[in-house]
Amino acid sequence: MKLLPRLLFIILIVCIAVSWFPKTHFWEKTKKTLLTKKEVALKPKTVTNAKLKTKAAEARNYLTGKNYNNQTCFFIDMSLPSGQKRFFIFDLKRDSLLSAGLVTHGNCMEYWLEEKRYSNVVGSGCTSLGKYKTGNPYTGKFGYSYKLYGLDSSNSNAYARAIVLHSHECVPDDEVTDEICQSNGCPTVAPVFLQQLKKIINSSKKPVLLWIYE
Questions:
Q1: Cα-atom radius of gyration of the chain, to the nearest Å?
Q2: Could you give the count of Cα atoms lying within 13 Å of 112 in the half-sphere of its Cβ?
Q3: Could you report the per-residue pLDDT of 164-200, keeping only the tens digit for each?
Q4: Which one of 3, 71, 140, 191 is CB 3.0 to 4.6 Å from 167, fit for a cystine?
């Protein structure tokens, strides 16, 4: 068999296989499994709201007698995948969720961090869990940003680590099935979501509490 006829024969076989495979029972079973995985990835955890309300109650107790905004608080639940909205704007007075957006976690200076890790070490590139005071805005490397001050032993080096709240175009506006981009430890949000945060922070006469937990 010469080269050209052989090549045409191979192409014909491939075309037949491609048209036949989607009709097989194996493909239907595989496709169903893949779709199920996507649905599970996007489905919010049933305990998220209850967990958020518990954290809000803790925040109200913490803020009592302190010179902070006691109306609105920011929560980031790192137990949720980054493709889900896990940055919550919460009304402490009405005990209700106002809005939510996507937010990154730190890559711990790895090309891609598979399993989340946390660190307070300068230069670690990891997320630090704990409570933060949202500081003054400034325009830096990533545009409009807010300085963050760690309030716990687990994030006391936040200012020294230059951990700030900022936005980046790599963060989508809506939920996705895959993990989103990672940062060097900063809670990074979508530009549109930062505008929501900006209105709250800049109009507040007192610092807003940001709490990152798992």
A1: 23
A2: 4
A3: 999 999 999 999 999 999 999 999 999 999 999 999 9
A4: 191
